[in-house]
Specification:
- By secondary structure, the chain is an alpha/beta fold.
- Helix content is 34%, strand content 9%.
- It has a 5-stranded mixed β-sheet.
- Strand 1, helix 4 and strand 2 form a beta-alpha-beta unit.
- The longest helix is centred in the first third of the chain and has 18 residues.
- It is globular.
- The chain starts with a helix and ends in a 21-residue tail after the last strand.
Length: 236
């Protein structure tokens, strides 16, 4: 939510539009205040992070109830309990998980030491920008989409395949509606939607086969995606 805090400070006249987009469920907000490293700060810092994020998200019209941690370099064992503490049953992450036997699925259940759990979507090796370069051009998309589909579909543990379009180093996709229409042409047997994270995870959970379980810290993903081990110095 810190992005919106900065934005409405600079352009206060836009806050009603921001709120309208959040209330219409077209703009997802939070649940974090900042996307912090999770193994260096104290536990209290992470709790305060989510408290501020919740308060700000409510100001704008509502919080996204998915613990979205796509780029942290590892995750503490209490992560599912932290989510549960804030009424969050779903999560998304990337680094710190993958490359080991039993970690091939895009859906997993992660259990905290106290027994609380979260349904996790694990991003593919190319992470949250996997679909950012998909072109809204029929000819070029027909070449690129089958290559991406071949990476995503075998990992899908439900009838639903999530294609993340966008990243922190890119501008927003210039023609997301056109891209959706072209993908629908290429996949006539599927329903192609522009979806929120919570919508996708609710559908995936309802349609998933029995998913594998995780326990403990997630801080190793070499062979899948790189993880900087040096950020873990103070986790003890």
């Amino acid at each position: 939510t810190v992005h919106l805090e900065d934005y409405v400070t600079v352009r206060p006249a836009m806050e009603p539009r921001v709120c309208a987009l959040v209330e219409a469920r077209r703009l997802q907000v939070g649940p974090w205040y900042v996307l912090a490293d999770e193994l260096i700060p104290s536990g209290e810092s992470l709790v305060r992070n989510l408290l501020v994020g919740r308060a700000q998200a409510e100001r704008y019209g509502g919080r996204l109830d998915v613990l979205y941690s796509p780029d942290a370099f590892g995750h503490p064992a209490v992560w599912p309990a932290l989510a549960a503490e804030f009424g969050i049953a779903w999560g998304v992450l990337w680094r710190g998980l993958g490359g080991e036997t039993g970690q091939e699925s895009d859906l997993m259940r992660w259990r905290a030491p106290d027994g609380r759990e979260v349904l996790l979507h694990h991003l593919p090796p190319d992470g949250y920008e996997v679909g950012a370069a998909l072109p809204a051009d029929r000819v070029r998309l027909a070449v690129q989409w089958p290559k991406l589909k071949a990476k995503l579909e075998p990992r899908a543990h439900s009838p639903h395949v999530a294609v993340f379009v966008g990243a922190d180093h890119h501008a927003a996709h210039p023609a997301i509606g056109r891209l959706r229409d072209l993908l629908a042409e290429l996949e006539p047997g599927a329903e192609v939607r522009v979806s929120r994270l919570d919508e996708y995870l609710a559908a995936a959970e309802a349609g998933a086969r029995e998913v594998p379980w995780l326990e403990g810290e997630l801080r190793w993903s070499y062979g899948y995606t790189w993880t900087l081990q040096g950020v873990h110095a103070t986790r003890a």
